[in-house]
Design brief:
27% of the residues lie in helices and 33% in strands. With 161 residues, the protein is of the alpha/beta class. It has one domain: L-asparaginase, N-terminal domain (Rossmann fold). The strands form 3 sheets. The protein has a 6-stranded mixed β-sheet with strand order 4-1-5-6-7-8, sandwiched between helices. A two-stranded antiparallel sheet has the order 2-3. A two-stranded antiparallel sheet has the order 9-10. Strand 2 and strand 3 form a beta hairpin. The longest helix has 14 residues. The protein is globular. It starts with a strand and ends with a strand.
Amino acid sequence: MKIKVFTTGGSIDKIYSTRESNFVVDEPQVAGIFQQANVVFEYEVAPLFRKDSLELSESDRWMITQKVRAAQERYILITHGTDTMIATALELLGIPDKVIVLTGAMQPAAFKYSDAAFNVGSAVVALQTLPEGVYVVMNGKVFDPRFARKNLEMDRFEGAS
């Protein structure tokens, strides 16, 4: 099993820039998470963007969709900012013959207390066990993007009716 990882930026990849006195999207963190976890599966990381998800445009989502469609791999992991993760997942619905999981983090992977490694690990397990389709994996749960939302007050994802 080989996993193709597309990175788009978001909080998972943010660091604090002393130059800008602000948080900025930096290099993708997912390869470092895999290295620390000593994973035994094959993967390839393909950075697409280094953007906060609120900065992703419809043309960016179109490009993500085209890259996923063109990927040789069946298993696709997309690291993404949490604010518009659901919108991107909805754009990917209908791509056949692939298991596509989007995940991210509420706190940057570089932080001591971050959900990044847990979410990435959960996403990898989801990729290996779910049937083809598009999923959001956050906070220890698998969500159908058509029935999920980010709860800003609770700082987590949840099912939506």
